[in-house]
Amino acid sequence: MKKITVLAGGVGGARFTRGLLHRLAASHPRAEVTVIVNTGDDLWLNGLRVCPDLDTVMYTLGGGINEEWGWGRAGESRRTSEEIGAYGRGWSWFTLGDLDLATHIVRTDLLRTGATLSEATALLCERWQPGARLLPMSDQPVETHVRLEADVDEHHAGDLVHFEEWWVRYRAHVEVTEFIQVGLAEATAAPGVLDAIHSADLVVIPPSNPVVSVGTILAVPGIREALRRTPARVVGVSPIIGGSAVRGMADHCLRVIGVETSAAAVGLHYGSRESGGLLDAWLVDETDAAALPALDAAGIRATAVPLWMHDVPTSAAIAAEVLAIGAER
Ligand code: FO1
After folding, report:
1. Regions of the chain short of the pLDDT cut 50
2. Is the CB of 285 under 6 A from ligand 1?
């Protein structure tokens, strides 16, 4: 088990990968982990390029994450964003902490002087030493926007608003009719992404949001095809436990695309490789063991294990299960 590639979004993917690295340090110290990170949540705010999922993975693996929030920096303050608000600028409901702002300022400075997002990410990671290679899914901007079903505040039915406004300002509680990845047509996989999938021994789809995180990565031209063709085993971990989203509001996103909020439905949504889908195997929580027959019938080798990630040891235990299944032939 030399090369492992993880497709990650925000908190769930970051915490799983932290557990994976912890486990590998004990069992496979020479393993190399590459994390392909969703950039669909990225946005321009106050003239700065903010990359929520790249930063969540970088801070979580680098030891700077705000553990309570799951995003942003530990020990954060808000003096600068309050000053920006005093000018009536920015998003009052979206916290850009003082420490976090340094990351956005450095990244934006790099981008403005010609660096690609991959290059900027590599430079930021030199400081944080995440212990894995972080690759944005694309160096071209791909932003998830949501189409509102009805008027709300200054917006009208049919308007597109950035995902972060829907997610943070409205907590996903206003109805949306579709997700649009703005910029997708002009996007290509970032350097190293397709190779990280083709040359892996194991590819993991962690318990990230299957729609706006994993789904957005899969939408980048060439990535879904690379997953279908890779000789690596592809093992997924359900983000749904006992019929509800573990974190975030994945259930709201699944409803928009017409997928039931269940461990089985998400596994079947990803599909089995033998039927042209993505998965060789799918981990569900013990409370969802009833889902195993349907998944096996669909050609997905399914296993029921404890999936709650309370801390690094529980995340590492899940990673150990993924590695065990990934090693089977
Ligand atoms: N999430 C919130 O619930 N409230 C916020 O004010 C907020 C600010 C924020 C700033 C930078 C950043 O990287 C992430 C931030 N997030 C915030 C989390 C973000 O919405 C999510 O991490 C992802 O977009 C979904 O995975």
Report:
1. none
2. no
